[in-house]
Amino acid sequence: MISLREGEIPEIRVTKSYALVAITKHGVANARKYAEKFPHVDLYYMKKFEQGDEEEKNIQLFDGTVRLLLPALFQQYKGMILIISLGAVVRMIAPILVDKKTDPGVLVVDDKGQYVVSVLSGHIGGANALTNEFSQAIGATPIVTTASDVQKTIPVDLFGARFGWIWDSDEKLTPVSASVVNEEHVAIVQETGETDWWMHDTAMPSTLKIYPSTQAAMEAKPHATLLITDRLIEKEEEVLLENGVIYRPKSIVLGMGCNRGTSLEEIEAVVDETLKELALSKKSVKALATIDLKKDEEGLLQCTSKNNWEFITYSPEQLNEMPLKNPSETVFKYTGAYGVSEPAALRYANTNELLLEKKKSGNVTISIARILFEELN
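and the corresponding structure tokens:
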């Protein structure tokens, strides 16, 4: 817990590029939802709204006036998203402003989550790009008052953020951003994920080129690469990452069944082992799906909470609507469904194809499907 005192800079734990701060009951409820939809933020709110799961979710509580917290956030984050009234924010940040070349971006969100306002450092600080991405992620209206955007291109550190994409590493964010801004040849390879990521009303710059495969991109020898994939890349592809960033879209669904009382440790071990076998990134898992009978299964609840995955359950009737290659009379006898892990994964992913048919490992049965997205134009 962060204790705020006059004249002291509080110690904070910085793990993401942006800080999200709430100070009201409704603001906190919304902020918790926003942090799940937009995974690039560290969440801060007042101790009096503590809910008991803050440590598990890496949420930081503070005690005292938020005015005393802002200088530390201002110094250490690329941007701040504040669920605080605009007037109050202006008064609080005025004494700590330094220069538009160095000040972080500042956004304000109203208590109901209807509007996201770009307040400070719109261009250089990236607040305008952050406003657009964040508002899309939470379903709000962006308010950007800058007369015009200097460049209509891809903000590398926020690419796909509104869909929940995260990058594998921040090591190359700066040089790749430089390549984009300096209009060098940048290759974009997308293997999965949402395809409507271009946000501007103009065509993409000719320096940003989409390639159908990593092989085609390697042959083109770009200055930089944006690679959107849920798979672990192969050694020969690493040349693209000499100045490249991998983005992990939320494209993988785990269908799962387990014996009653199966531990979190066993469930996670099976998940990790299986994803490694299939050369898939754990960062791309979106949801774990199962049967309604397991909606209170502690190990599954702990696993999804720990990894910030959606936990979805279906009725036997819903599962039986999905096509199955290997229906089980034994499973039907005990659950009313002819399968659990396979149809649960298929139903959530909205597909008829599995990346992995059911695999039994100890007390756990797992299947994996990839979410069906629109094809890239």
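(Above: one complete record from the training split.) The chain has three domains: 2-143, 163-248, 252-370.
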